[in-house]
Amino acid sequence: MYIKSFQLKEIKAFSDVKFDFGKDDQYAGWNVFVGGNASGKSTILKGIALALAGPVEGRVLLPTTQGWLRYSAASGTIDLELVFDKEHDTFKGKGATPIGPFFAGVQWHKPSKEDQLPIFEANKKSRSPLKIAERSLWNTNASGWFCAGYGPMRRLTGTSADAIRFTLAGGVISRFLTLFREDAALTESEEWLKKEHARSLEQGTNSQSAQLLENVTSFLNDGLLPNNMKISKVTVDQVLLSNQEGLELPMRDLSDGFRSVYALLLDLIHSFAEVYGVEGLFTKNPDSPWQINKPGVVLIDEVEAHLHPVWQQTLPEWLKSRFPLVQFIVTTHSPLIVQAASPGGIYVLPLQNEPQRAARRLDDHEYEKIRLGRAEKILLGEAFGLKQTRSTWAKKQIDQWKRLKAKKEAEVELTTAEKSDFERLERDMQLVFEFPENQE
Q1: How far is residue 149's CA from residue 179's CA, in Å, rounded to a whole number?
Q2: For residue 338, which of 365, 313, 306 has the smallest C-alpha distance?
Q3: Residue 351 needs a FRET pair 20 to 30 A away by CA distance; which of 16, 361, 369, 410 works?
Q4: Cross-strand bridge partners of residue 122
């Protein structure tokens, strides 16, 4: 399953906005939404997740239906146009199978003006019959239709007791839980790995559990972790990593960056195994890395959270190459994450105080400038719209130096304090202009 288009009407800050995904009918790849805080990035990911999950599971994910309708609107809708995979995505029940893309959506609706709390339900006015969604991606018995979503708090531990019961239930709710709840952690996937280890001890080295454990470890050790860190051992109690000196440490004792990436990837593998089964899930050819060649949609909010810039550069490419059939839809504040976008895969959201800018997908020329550009230039460009990349303090120093320099060139006598200030600033400006703009 892939998302061909996505539309919001009267939802939060959006009156009516539509985004088309994919280029030349190629939907797998890296799609990035950029914009300032409160521009609606998280709203888009959560909206997609709710439409994918459907009204029944969506009510579980939503803490409240309040706050989703825009201003004084009586109703608002989120609609997805979906492309299904004929090999993996199935339909249940009676009815004709669509021959092409179909629509599925949800809505918030106030039955009357007196109602303060809107009702969350399926969008009955969607352009495709409601029954199609109920027979496919919203049907718990229909196979395929893979989707998962992750919020910025991708913790390995620390889940609340309330969130645990939703995690243990499995299914689409558990795959989207961290996107909606900050008290949810990705604990269950590591428990799954340790249980498979216990089964392998009981069933032997040739068992399916032993093979699964070896495949998961090989997959995660295939260039994911920096500094030559490797998963060295899985026990019934913990997962151990070793560095290039051979020092072993429990995963839970490592940095937030290590744990968040490990938790996300392990949870993603676990989710793929639940949906598609473990038989034939992993592929490894001599000329390619370890891969999971299954389709689906994966949402990640603030994908760069906890990551050093070096890892921000490499992680998107790693994900694209290891999950070549997945449509990633992510949000970010990092130019390094944006540079990894697939063709036609950069979307800009304006702030609420920028009415002159429209939410849109960047054109091919803008995309190429970002893909080939430097991080500083990207921050100053259309995607981020910064006016400068220096700190406010540094800009004040440069402005003061310019003012004093102009005064001196005009042969205006400087005061003693100004002379001292100018001498200091002259030394500082040597550092400011040490690297010319055209230097790589």
Answers
A1: 6
A2: 313
A3: 369
A4: 106
Q: Which of 20, 19, 18 is nearest to 9 (CA)?
A: 18
Q: Rounded distance, CA 392 to CA 277, Å?
A: 54
Long-range pairs for 69-74: beta carbons < 8 A, 24 or more residues apart: 69/10, 69/11, 69/108, 69/110, 69/118, 70/10, 70/11, 70/12, 70/13, 70/14, 70/15, 73/10, 74/109, 74/110, 74/113
What is the layout of strands, in order, in the sheet containing 102-109?
A: 14-20, 2-11, 75-83, 102-109, 119-122
Q: What is the pLDDT of residues 192-246, one digit of tens each?
A: 888 999 999 888 888 899 999 999 999 999 988 887 888 888 888 888 888 877 7
The pLDDT value given to residue 227: 77
Q: How many residues does the chain have?
A: 440
Rg (CA), the chain: 25
**pLDDT single digits (tens) 283-333:** 988 888 999 999 999 999 999 988 888 889 999 999 999 999 999 999 999
Q: Greatest CA separation found in the chain?
A: 91
Closest by CA to 318, choosing from 371, 253, 373, 264, is 264
**CA distances (Å), origin 46, targets 171, 176, 356, 363:** 17, 9, 26, 25
CA distance 342 to 23: 9
In a 3-state reduction of DSSP, which class is residue 113?
Answer: coil
Residue-averaged pLDDT of the chain = 88
Residue 134, pLDDT > 90, answer yes
Which 8-state DSSP code applies to residue 69?
B
Cβ neighbours of residue 250 closer than 8 Å, sequence gap 6 or more: 238, 239, 240, 241
Question: Residues 194, 234: contact at Cβ < 8 Å?
Answer: yes
Digit-coded pLDDT (tens) for 361-410: 999 999 999 988 888 888 888 788 777 788 888 889 889 999 999 988 99
